[in-house]
Automatic annotation (TrEMBL), chains A, B:
Coiled coil: none annotated. The keyword Lyase does not apply. One of its GO terms (molecular function) is methyltransferase activity. Keywords: Magnesium, Metal-binding, Methyltransferase, Transferase. One of its GO terms (biological process) is methylation. This is S-adenosyl-L-methionine-dependent methyltransferases superfamily protein. It comes from Prunus dulcis (Almond). InterPro entries: MeTrfase_7, MeTrfase_capping, SAM-dependent_MTases_sf.
């Protein structure tokens, strides 16, 4: 079966840096309110997407299959899935098909290194769906042909499948020496990231085009940058640059080795709406039913925004940083990062941040 | 959706004592060769079971769904699944349906407390199927209606869904004071275990009858006892009794509290072929296509059988014992157990051990 084999060409090791698991103070579960803000804003979008489902979507089955790609450990994935189920049920009711409301089976996907044990232990006993975990990269095949009716992916597609090889190759003109991200780097490094992103989007859309059932929909929430703005603008990219400068400072002090900083890159890419459209067009098998751009809204309670940004960044990066530099430097690194932010709150203020809300529908064969 | 809700009536806590995870020397992964011996013996059975599949099994889908119930962390589950896929492919080829060989999606099920992270990290990159993990008790619903074509469960159905409440209730005539298993206990305790087993089998078969696709098959490998033999005979039961006597000795020495021993029971039940037949008949929705009884064969290499028995028992029980008595007593307990076995190798020699190999087929609606 060539299809399942395809996944193996993606080395899990290359990109398998999970969000921080467990439920400690630095865990992803406790530090994903920014993502949840977007999720709430997207609830209406899920209704619109469900409206676009073919009404005979279940012609060959009485189970509606939902997959959340890049689910992490919860709880945002649970809110998203519940909203999708509500939207699909509403679609059926609205069409007078109350008696045909299907059963739901939900596939929670993330990297093999994700903390699925924690995800599974967070499942509600009263959930109204059958649940399964699917480990593996969403840049490869994860599901059988034509088997998923509703794909969802929120805050995941900004992660590349891997660090582009050239940027950690000393002998390449794209070697990213002294930096950990493309957004403040040379044209060669930027091009290497752009090429990786284009290849990844092609793989993502190819895999989904095969896996999605006829008449099914795909909803994507992607943090990115506005058309025509430079890579140095997005606030997320500024954060990575700042982390990079903290690491270089620690290298100068001898706390970490400079070689290790040179070999460390964050495989996150801020795409534009145009780049997404081009990928969809290049793939050719989806129609772009909707694309909306929202400003990135942070929902914060009593903690300061700065602290919140640091917490989010730490939840996202701690695994990678620990793997590269060891656990012992993590606290110092993020303290130094927070200090810089508190001293110059304007560092991130120039940054932009947008989220695209995208609905794709598989074209008829 | 009542179906998914049903699962919630089973308290996960009540039975969620997983096999020892990880891959250390006492882990299940390194101590399941006895189970694998039976798996090899059962390969032929899987071929026979596949033969019994309706040939139009996939009328409504091009994916063949397999579920392994009580999969633990591998590797035995992988061998079983590969054998099933081979057998199903052979069936298609044999019928001249080479071009219609389906894709396979495999659901690996075990308790929520199972180490799914380890299971997922053990997946072969070259596997010829799509894989998903499904956490939850197989005594409740796990899958949508009529969605699974081939159920498999090996060395799992001897575990009850929970310790019968009465046996840890001081005020019940079935209080199992000073013992940790029913097999050397009073009639009241035996009846409590028997009743729990009957209820569990009813739940298991009810759930599977709803989940299995028309024309699908269920293969069960169950360690049990021969018809007409007493509960005190199976070698597994003798092991539990011996562990119980070691615990009581430790209680007398003050190493563990006697109250904790009284509150500790092992929810494992050795059923007979007759009990299984009665459960299938009571359920009424499966035909018993085959039941074969094999002697329990141990496949051992260079380690002594005694050591092997201890290792297996430890892998199966360590989680429960740690939870009840604390980690610090585990080594002492199993050393004392091993010593008793070495001093009197005949202790287990009187025991019997059989495995049933069972093929069930869903009756037409």
């Amino acid at each position: 079966m060539a299809a399942a084999g395809e996944a193996s060409k993606f080395s899990e090791e290359a990109y398998a840096y999970p969000m921080t698991g467990g439920d400690g103070p630095n865990s992803y579960a406790k530090n994903s309110t920014l993502q949840r803000g977007a999720g709430d804003a997207a609830k209406e979008l899920l209704n619109e997407a469900a409206e676009k489902l073919d009404i005979d979507i279940l012609s060959s089955s009485n189970t509606f299959h939902i997959a959340d790609l890049g689910c992490s450990v919860g709880p945002n994935t649970f809110f998203a899935v519940e909203n999708i189920i509500e939207a699909v049920k509403f679609k059926f009711q609205n069409q007078g098909l109350n008696s045909q409301i299907p059963e739901f089976q939900v596939f929670f996907n993330d990297h093999t290194q994700n903390d699925f044990n924690m995800l599974f232990r967070s499942f509600s006993q009263n959930r109204q769906y059958y649940a399964a975990g699917v480990p593996g990269s969403f840049y490869g095949r994860l599901f059988p042909d034509a088997s998923v009716h509703f794909f969802h992916s929120s805050y995941a597609l900004q992660w590349l499948s891997r660090v582009p090889k050239e940027v950690v190759d000393k002998n390449s003109p794209a070697w990213n020496k002294g930096r950990i991200h493309y957004s403040n780097s040379t044209d060669e490094v930027v091009r290497a990231y752009e090429a990786q992103h284009a290849e990844d989007m092609e793989c993502f859309l190819n895999a989904r085009a095969q896996e999605i059932a006829d008449g099914g929909v795909t909803v994507l929430l992607i943090p990115g940058r506005p058309n025509g703005t430079p890579h140095s603008h997005p606030v997320g990219n500024l954060s990575f640059q700042l982390i990079g400068s903290c690491l270089m400072e620690m290298a100068r002090k001898g706390v970490v080795s400079e070689e290790k900083v040179d070999a460390f890159n964050i495989p996150v890419y801020a795409m534009t709406p145009e780049e997404l459209e081009a990928a969809v067009e290049g793939n050719g098998r989806f129609s772009l039913e909707k694309m909306e751009t929202l400003p990135h809204v942070s929902t914060h309670g009593t903690v300061s925004v700065t602290q919140l940004v640091v917490s989010h960044l730490r939840a996202a990066l701690e695994g990678r940083i620990t793997q590269q530099f060891g656990e012992e430097i993590v606290d110092e690194l993020f303290e130094s990062y927070l200090k810089k932010l508190e001293e110059q709150p304007s560092i991130l203020a120039t940054g932009t941040a947008i989220i695209f809300l995208v609905v794709l529908k598989r074209k008829a064969n």
